[in-house]
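Input chain follows. Return structure tokens only.
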Amino acid sequence: MTTQAARQSATTEDVMGQGSDHGPRPVEEQRAAPRERTLYALGRLIVAGRQHVCTVRNLGPGGAAVELDLPPAVGTAVTVETRGLTACAASVRWVRDRAVGLAFDEALGDAALRTVAETPRSPRFDYDGPVELIVDARLTECRALDLGLGGIRVAGEPPAPVGSAIEVVIDAELVVRGRLCWDSGTAFAIEFAAPLSVRQLSGAIARREAVLSR
């Protein structure tokens, strides 16, 4: 084997082996070229109109590998978002445990891949629902607009000035401390004192989606 061939083989094994601890990959998971970006980034997967929190393990021109608690079936049409990548249509090519392989409807170009690599901010999730804000033991009921790992955006006027400490009751299972970081007059944002875990965010989104689907 030539030096160049050995290098290419090692690179392929490194990238393709990410997250694989169950022996050889299924035939449907194999692909002609390795993914060009190893991310392990927060992702937003839309399946039949419902949003799910996922982890984008890797990403390339033709597809991506993601992980989520409730994987869709092979052949399902989905939309995937991650940092720097918005509303990319795809279909499920393979499923193994929590891992899912996606094939994009249209291949990504070099510019799109560079944007993903250079964008640090994770996607935010629609969260049109009630939340409670607690400032100095005073409770205010508000309506949230969207939710992310690092904070939440809320409609209306804030219950305190920018910079104030606020406790956010997102639902019965998730209460977070933060501070009011900006106010536009019609909406305001709260930055969490510590980012949510992917599990916390996934749980909050799943509970809200369950309410909306009733």
